[in-house]
## 1
Amino acid sequence: MSIQATRLSAIRPAGAPVLSVHELSTVFYGRSGPLTAVDRVSFDVAEGEVVALVGESGSGKSVTALSIMGLLDSRVASITGGTIEFDGADLRAMHEHEFSRLRGNRIAMVFQEPMTSLNPSLTIGRQLTEGLEVHRGISHHDALRQAEALLGSVGISDPARRLGGYPHEMSGGMRQRVMVAMALSCRPRLLIADEPTTALDVTTQAQILDLIKTLTAQSGTAVVLITHDLGLVARYAKRVNVMYSGRLVEQAGVQRLFAQPQHPYTRGLLASMPRLDLPRQDSLMAIEGLPPDLEERDAGCAFRTRCPVAAARCSEPQPWVDIVPGHRAACWRAAGSAV
């Protein structure tokens, strides 16, 4: 175990979450001034748990992930508030050289598109062995041996031959398997999977996510699953955080969220998804309209311009309403609250 990992373990209180995000805010700097892309987001993830971040494209899910990973381009974006604690250590307080020892080692990420994440000029073997050599301090020979085993563990046939190949010689599903192998090579405490099955066929999607769930369960890795697909959430996640226009609007356990959604946006997402556990649906509901431009968003509920039950009070800041322990929604109407 590295000195950094030892220090993190020593300061982590018993029973504390692996990742704890509190009131995180991230802005992008545009011509008209700073635009808040992530607005006071809070959630946590326990050891061995899969927690989902769900929402439409542009809702702030990936920006949240990049903020946690410390991968924002400082020329155009920055974190303006909140805390990000990993095993009790404040990631925002770390110097970059210290953070870089964690990134790819104790904290890993699977990105949306493996073809743009893998280096096209390096062999698969070199890209797999680099992290092992840097973070684990092992020889190139031993790293190659582990890389071969990793490729085999993610279901790639003839792994020894594939080590000498390049990303363009693989299918999309195989490249994503390589990304999973890279992310899990150092047995991270935290894995962020950002739309890990985008553009893959349904069968390959299930294989990739089954693989992530199996491999992370074996090591007790905490997983943040970022997706817009509620079907994947129902199958793989334990808890769900629903995002809209950079803000969290509902948080609940998976079964509770599907059975009793409280926020109108969550209801809209569920109504727009085919479900086998309900009577035959002749048509699916569409959420009319578009999310607000960040320049035009105000302190009120960002969903109110698309909400079928919006009222005058929705132009005010929405309070969090606790429905039952572990389930809350940012809506005046949640749990029958009067507007």
Note: The chain has twelve helices and twelve strands.
## 2
Amino acid sequence: MLNLTRLLTGTATPGDGLRYGETTAAPGGLPPQRQLHHRPVVVWNITRRCNLHCLHCYISAADRDFPGEFTHEEALGFINELADYQVPVLLFSGGEPLLRPALPELMAQAVGRGLRVVLSTNGVLITSQVAHTLHQTGLSYVGVSLDGLEPVHDRFRGKRGAFRASLDGIHHCLDAGVRTGVRFTLTRYNLSDLESMFDLVEREGIPRLCIYHLVYAGRGQGARRLDLDAAQARVAMDTIIRRTLRWHETSPQAEVLTVDNHADSPYLYLWALANAPDRAAEVYRLLRRNGGNSSGVGIADVDNLGNVHADQFWQHYSFGNVRRRPFPEIWEDTRDPVMHGLKDRKGLLKGRCATCRFLELCNGNLRLRAEAVHGDLWAPDPACYLNDAEVGAGLAPSAPVGEDSGNGTRPARASL
């Protein structure tokens, strides 16, 4: 997860402590963030049941009961286990987590144990009363998914009226004092709505836009046809950069983030070298601290049955089940070859990922996309949109302005 607002403007935001290891006072009255964590952020698919049917759902959720989900007592016990392990964030997801009975009680328990709690939801079920209840739990953030403007969103979500209900849910949260933002997953079928999504959050007073790249998992596993090609990805990034800077001028505390394609990191750095050289050294430093993809390292997923995954998209591969082994024991056990590889992957990467001069910024990007397309976990990520000159296989990283890169070349200019 890259915070473009921080990278491009230098403005501190609430998640900086997790991303960059900096303890800074967070805006909006939130407490300062702890320093760079040594425990994973945990995404918990608390239920697989969902009231919508999204084309790109990574967990293939459905509107039915799924046998074997955690009892309330088991869920409380697992929260205590995570709190004892001192994970920095617990993100409740689904399915649709608001369909989980007594969810507010679970969230309040997590907050009471010192966890930073986040909710990922489609927003349809958030009434004014639900928003008030969420606020009372003490959670830190609610992310509501929108896939574009009304026609596109309703088509992606499989339900007419979903867009209006989700937007109402966002406003109910904001009115209740809950920090809330939009989660938008880019595909070739909603790229034309990207500018409109910026217009939407600006017009509606929504302070955060988190833009996700597509991951080929769940119902989205065969959906590479939905993904952007390299040229489209570059157009999208140029648009995101331009609109982030413009939004910052009128709303300095607004946040724009990109997620799930760490080619964004070197692209942002190269853009800074060409367009904002005074920011380049700081951008590189922060990106290096962030470290790129952290599947199996800085992020974990626990599904509705208790299986532990490298992140929320890895539903096909489990390292163990928390009903049989404690989560810390599973997470730290590197006898599993995939867990071992993810925690120390650089020597396993192949092709241009192995020799990319920006490997320390992206960490090989998403291994799951490589496996989905190439059948090889360590092959190059097919969604990397950098060209060969930018990758500069075998070359040293481009040094920030004022330093010698050691290779006598200037980085390719990123178009804007």
Note: Confidence is low (pLDDT under 50) at residues 23-36, 401-416.
## 3
Amino acid sequence: MKRQAFLLCMAAALILSVSAADTPQQTYIDRWAATAVREMYRSGVPASITLAQGILESRSGLSALAAEGNNHFGIKCHKDWKGKTMRVDDDRKGECFRVYGSAEESFRDHSDFLRYWDRYKFLFDFDTKDYESWAYGLKKAGYATDPSYPEKLIKIIEDYDLSRFDSMTQAQAGRASSRSGASAGQAKKSETPAASQKPSKGSSAKASRASRAEDRAAARAARRQARRERLAAEEVIPDEIPESPNSIEQAVPVSAAAAEVFHFSLTRPVYTRNGVPFIYSIEGETYSSIASSYNLFPKEILKINDLSSETRLLPGTVVYLQQKKNQAEKGLDKYIVEEDGESLRDICQRFAVRMSAVNKLNGFTAGHTLREGDTIILRKP
């Protein structure tokens, strides 16, 4: 009887292990982990976040939106979407969602959606291994209305150890997915009697799992402490404007989103963006006075800054001193307009690109009006 009971227990354990490996969530991970890692290297979005969002938003690929529209991340149409659509009841009845030609297109669009919408840009200041900050940041930026959205993402990541993909190379992720699929297939086909499974191996595997769980718990605690310290010390530091053209010891403006680098001249700080030098204007300056200080013609500095005539120069305005580039720096392929009426010139000044070049890239005519959701191409495809 004892032997029969032991055999039944071992058989039950084997069945549970097979079924656990065959859950919709694990099947989804095995299928899309390599794609998520590839997107991480292309865009900077952590693979763990991509997979967790895919599992949550698409119900592990089983939702109607994923099955019929290849939309794994619940991305709605917005005004810039020109592709196919489908209507699904979400926050409101019959909302418009994007339809993709393949699930891979959905993964790519998800990465681009986070990378190129202004409200998500701050996420890329977080380390790709800091999935908790990404999870809470997505909620802060308005990705979902569910107040427990971050906690749900974090639970999925930790339940399935998705953070391991954040440290993998693309080749490693591909091999891991292949091994997972092979292991699941072998488990299904296995005809080894339960009695042949040695308890010592099971105990060793259990101990190994416990050790990994302890490591993950320690890592989570360290990340939480780091996040608490960062949030406690975090302050928005405004750009500090030099008080006079002769100032030398001025604080460097903080602008992580613009990824600015700088050097000091003998008279005032000169910064660069996209390889183009610029200064911040100060009280009382005009374009003409700046042109005179830097041996430029008044019309020349206006042309450099995409202006046809002298306009009022507010303190803290970016004024370029050399011709801007024909395209934005690498990684800034496009920009998505956040609100109606946003100025194309302001966008060009922000990314140090010529307005004439951006007009040509996008097929715009002079005086083109931008609307919310418009996609502005900043680099040649």
Note: The chain has a mean pLDDT of 78.
